[in-house]
Amino acid sequence: MEKSQLLKIAQDYGSPVYVYDAEKIEQQYKRLTNAFKGVKQLKINYAVKALSNISVLKLLHSFGSGIDTVSIQEVQLGLAAGFPADKIIFTPNGVSLEEIETVTKLGVQINIDNLSILEQFGAKHPNIPVCIRINPHIMAGGNANISVGHIDSKFGISVHQIPHILRIVENTGMTINGIHMHTGSDILDIEVFLYASEILFDTAKQFKDLEFLDFGSGFKVPYKKDDIETNIEELGKKLTKRFNDFCKDYGKELTLAFEPGKFLVSEAGQFLVKVNAVKQTTSTVFAQVDSGFNHLIRPMLYGSQHVIENISNLKGKERFYSVVGYICETDTFANNRRINEINEGDILAFKNAGAYCYSMSSNYNSRYRPAEVLWHNNKAHLIRKRETFEDILKNQIEIDFSSKK
């Protein structure tokens, strides 16, 4: 997408607005599949929670992707987008047995990460194969909120509890058809990932009816120039060899599965905002924009840094700005950032806005959620309308207080 095209999108659809580049999503998908082309059976399950717009899901379905879901609603979205049930895996955390049983009726692959739920499910549905999510006790992730494989994590069944799993399987007669792990997001060191993979392989040896091994994801994408990213190509080379060797020892050709979210859509997204005001204080120049953490919470929640570019003044002299939102709390997107000179009315573009941006947005301060636009085949397609005041009131029920009775 050229800057002129982004400016036209902001003009045509208003600001703020999320814009996604379909070509970039496809590039990332092909990059991952090419890195593991040496695996006979590879399955990519896109993590719906990263960006759940149904048009994006349909786009990924057209590439041959499956999906990873964490709620019954995401499963329903996947089915509505055209994914067959056998290309959907359900990996919830802390949900009720009733929700898992409801999803089971839809025919998708179930992934369980709780001994109690595993035992209850196995006792009631011994003929339904399930996957088990283990916790390898490996710390990975760029922030404590996205590190999910450490010993104090709520996710997965501890590798030290494998004997308990085996006892449940024996007592219930249930079948375990997959083993899964996820260490966390923003993996920097592939050796850590490979070490965790060895734990997955060791666990898998103890189950005789496996069909797949799911290695999760968490691959880091670059957020700024010269930033570190996961070396997918090197990981592909090393893990492919190890996986193929394991399959030979296991005596069966298994499927290698991943569940990338951010890796596929993060770099494809840009978030466009308009500068409402430039405010000079005694120590800081604020660029105040028509958005806030109700639309992009990641800098406040994770401390993430998004490159911000003034696409209205590409050749302007750089100055230092703190870019802040309009929410009545501190909602700072960037502190003292070098950006081309900003004037009121300029359009700023936030990079890496494809993952966990719209999907984590809210109506805080009763603000509307923005529109979403997909750039596909050199054309802008509106894939979600901007909310209106009617949307804010839609599910609210008014009480009549005029009567004294």
UniProtKB/TrEMBL annotation:
Lineage of the organism: Bacteria, Pseudomonadati, Bacteroidota, Flavobacteriia, Flavobacteriales
Function: Specifically catalyzes the decarboxylation of meso-diaminopimelate (meso-DAP) to L-lysine.
Subunit structure: Homodimer.
Annotated keywords: Amino-acid biosynthesis, Decarboxylase, Lyase, Lysine biosynthesis, Pyridoxal phosphate
Chain positions with N6-(pyridoxal phosphate)lysine modification: 49
Residues reported in the UniProt entry to bind substrate: 298, 302, 329, 356
GO molecular function, one term: pyridoxal phosphate binding
Segments forming domain Orn/DAP/Arg decarboxylase 2 C-terminal: 18-354
Reactions listed under catalytic activity: meso-2,6-diaminopimelate + H(+) = L-lysine + CO2
GO biological process, one term: lysine biosynthetic process via diaminopimelate
Organism, scientific name: Pseudalgibacter alginicilyticus
Active site: 328
Pathway in which this enzyme or protein is active: Amino-acid biosynthesis; L-lysine biosynthesis via DAP pathway; L-lysine from DL-2,6-diaminopimelate: step 1/1
UniProt cofactor(s): pyridoxal 5'-phosphate
Domain named Orn/DAP/Arg decarboxylase 2 N-terminal: residues: 23-266
Gene3D superfamilies linked to this entry: Alanine racemase, Lyase, Ornithine Decarboxylase, Chain A, domain 1
Protein name, UniProt field: Diaminopimelate decarboxylase
Gene expressing this chain: lysA
Family: Belongs to the Orn/Lys/Arg decarboxylase class-II family. LysA subfamily.
E.C. numbers: 4.1.1.20
Matching CDD domains: PLPDE_III_DapDC (cd06828)
